[in-house]
Amino acid sequence: MSLSLIFSAFALATQRPAGAQLPASEQASLEESEMENSAEHNIAVVKKMIAAWEALDADAITDMFTEDGVLHSVMIDPIVGRDAIRPRMAFLVDNATHMRLNVRNWAVTGNTVFIEREDEFTFKGHEGKVPVVGVLVVEGDKIKEWREYYDRAELLEAMGVEGDF
To answer: For residues 161 and 64, is the Cβ–Cβ distance under 8 A?
Structure first.
C-alpha cells in the first residue's frame, strides 16, 4: 500500500465519527487504489522474472519461484518445487545464447498475471520465435505457479530439438 494511500485513509478515518462507514464512492476509490497497487506489484514481480530469463540466469529464474512453486508447460507434466525446477532452467539457459520475451499484452486479476508474448531465442545455434501465453500466480515477491500455453511441436522445431528434452 502506498504512503499517500495510507495518509488518505488516515485522514478520512479521522474525519468520521467512530463506527461511521465511508461513503460507497470513497470506499470504492480506496479499493481501486489498493487493486492498482497490487496489480503494479504483481507486474513488477513478473517483469523481474522476465529479466532473469533474458539474462539467461538459471539461479535467478529458479529463485523467483516459491519453495513449492510450480512450472507447468501444460502439454507436459508440471515440475513442482524449486529443487526440481532448477535443473530444467539450467538446461535451457546453458544451451541458449539469446532470449527475449516480447510481451504484447498484460492482464491482472487478483494475484494472477496473464502475459501474451512472443519468445525469441537462440538455442544450440538455432534461432527461433514462438507465441506463448503465460499465466503466473504471484505470492509476495515470488511466483507460486507459472503455466505456459504454446505449441510444443513448434517450440521443439524452433529449438532444433529432435523428439523432446
So the answer is: no
Hunting for cell 510450480 — which residue is that?
70
Distance of CA 87 to the CA centre of its chain: 20
Each as own residue / partner, the long-range contacts of residues 116-124 (CB below 8 Å, 24 or more positions apart, any chain) are: 121/96, 121/158, 121/159, 122/96, 122/97, 122/98, 123/92, 123/95, 123/96, 123/158, 123/159, 123/160, 123/161, 124/95, 124/159, 124/160
Q: Cβ distance 139 to 111 under 8 Å?
A: yes
Name the phi and psi angles at 150, rounded to 5.
-160, 170
Element (H, E) at 161: none
Instruction: Catalogue the E-assigned strands of 88-141.
Output: 96-109, 112-123, 126-139
Whether the CB-CB separation of 149 and 133 falls below 8 Å is answered with yes
pLDDT in tens, the chain (165 residues): 444 444 444 444 445 455 556 566 555 554 555 555 699 999 999 999 999 999 999 999 999 999 999 999 998 999 999 999 999 999 999 999 999 999 999 999 999 999 999 999 999 999 999 999 999 999 999 999 999 999 888 888 888 877 666
Of the chain, the end-to-end C-alpha distance in Å amounts to: 43
